[in-house]
């Protein structure tokens, strides 16, 4: 057997792994706090005031906000994109470099949008 | 003695257009293995039944078959654990030569592709010394009997026969982790390719069916980490 071409999979696998950790560690807490407890009125409303949240996101020169977006939106997006891409292979359903571009491209585009909106919010005032 | 109903897949490429299931009634007790039952059929019912076997004690890895759709060693699987028809077919994902005999050529090619032997420039006659800690690093992965059950369990090998597969990648890890070996650089190109460690999507069924509890899925994931490290190092090399 000749030497096969090196796969670029380590890049996507690293993003997938990091996204998996974020999915398991940060998302459940965020969903519980922002998606369940807050709408049900079980959180002290002063905790989630706009001004207070904004100052939290802006702390550390805005890195806290960017890190939160990265951990809760960007990396999980790449995790999901990787799963969908390989799921297409398992289902024998259009697995190709085009679907690879579509999956990771969508994850990258949505990540950029999320980071842009976060940055916009942080720099707003 | 209890009567067990066996449905055995028969296929003779010289006479049959396609495989068919043939029913046999086999007497057995709580010690009768699937291999015992197959040998009973061959010796008492139909001498033309083709099967591969040798040691009868889960060492040789020859008697792998699908039992009710799960890859098993015939000698390590007992009729007492089944209460209705027992369907016995050749190992999945391999080409069938005759009845329960499959063509293992590709499997063996994958094993040899990862250079499964000690590679070093040592030419002395003194014994290699190895501490128990150094041995423990690879010992688990060295117990493979090359039965091929993990390839029958692996959906990725089923979809893509070019995928090196669980046993070959486990064997690569076995030698890469051996303190007496310096051949990692020669093995990594195979693992780094899309048909190497990256062909795996961590289904994990290989580890479920392994009759030696090697945990090939763990070896493959370790190989992914090694390949990712190799990828990063390669970026800094001219």
From TrEMBL, chain A:
Protein name stated in the entry: Fumarate reductase subunit D
Any one GO biological process: fumarate metabolic process
Membrane topology label: Multi-pass membrane protein
Main localization of the protein described in the UniProt heading: membrane
Subunit structure: Part of an enzyme complex containing four subunits: a flavoprotein (FrdA), an iron-sulfur protein (FrdB), and two hydrophobic anchor proteins (FrdC and FrdD).
Pfam families: Fumarate_red_D
GO MF annotation, one: succinate dehydrogenase activity
A GO CC term assigned to this protein in UniProt: fumarate reductase complex
SUPFAM superfamilies given in the database record: Fumarate reductase respiratory complex transmembrane subunits
UniProt lineage: Bacteria, Pseudomonadati, Pseudomonadota, Gammaproteobacteria, Chromatiales
Gene: frdD
Reported function: Anchors the catalytic components of the fumarate reductase complex to the cell membrane, binds quinones.
Superkingdom to which the source organism belongs: Bacteria
InterPro entries from the UniProt entry: Fumarate_red_D, SQR/QFR_C/D
Record organism: Rheinheimera pacifica
TrEMBL record, chain B:
An MF annotation (GO) of this entry: 3 iron, 4 sulfur cluster binding
Pathway assignment: Carbohydrate metabolism; tricarboxylic acid cycle; fumarate from succinate (bacterial route): step 1/1
EC number(s) on file: 1.3.5.1
Principal EC category: oxidoreductase
Source superkingdom: Bacteria
Catalytic activity, reaction form: a menaquinone + succinate = a menaquinol + fumarate
Name under which the protein is recorded: Fumarate reductase iron-sulfur subunit
Organism expressing this protein natively: Rheinheimera pacifica
Phylogenetic classification of the source organism: Bacteria, Pseudomonadati, Pseudomonadota, Gammaproteobacteria, Chromatiales
